[in-house]
Specification:
The model has no long low-confidence stretch (mean pLDDT 88). It is built from eight helices and no strands. GO terms for molecular function: RNA binding.
């Protein structure tokens, strides 16, 4: 399958990784191929594809630094495209992977407060969990409201 990823649309890529996560299926060759494919196609990925992929990699504990750096660099300009669930799943996945990227966290922390009315309790807790896992001090969403990111 890794050799056929070029045939996959972004949604199919993210669903494949998410399915692996749900099945607790670990396949390094597949995950590395997905990361390589996603790096080339990231601008074509919808926000949901990005958040689902990062969330899924977080669930299985697969960390690809190049992909995470690309996601952190690519998504700040697209945060308006993410649903509240997408934002929270993205931050939750990054937290599971303990991926710290100060510029991304600052962008997220500037963005989330104006979107809080859209967040349900699960979205809030997932976001706070993710911020806490990367070492953000204080209550994740309270500190997020200040627009500052301070790490432990």
């Amino acid at each position: 399958m890794p050799g056929r990823l070029g045939e996959f649309k972004a949604q199919e890529v993210s669903i494949t990784v998410y399915s692996c996560a749900l099945l607790r299926f670990w396949h390094v060759e597949l995950f590395q191929a997905v990361c390589g494919h996603a790096l080339q196609q990231l601008p074509q990925f919808h926000s949901q594809n990005i958040s689902n992929m990062v969330y899924a990699f977080g669930l299985v504990g697969f960390r690809n630094e190049a992909l995470l750096q690309a996601v952190a660099a690519h998504t700040p300009g697209r945060l308006d495209e993410f649903t509240a669930q997408g934002l929270s799943n993205l931050m939750y996945g990054l937290g599971l992977l303990r991926f710290r990227h100060a510029a991304f966290v600052r962008a997220l922390c500037r963005h989330v407060p104006r979107r809080l009315p859209e967040f349900n309790p699960q979205n809030m807790s997932n976001t706070a969990f993710g911020l806490g896992r990367i070492g953000l001090r204080g209550t994740g969403l309270r500190l997020c409201g200040t627009g500052q990111a301070t790490y432990l």
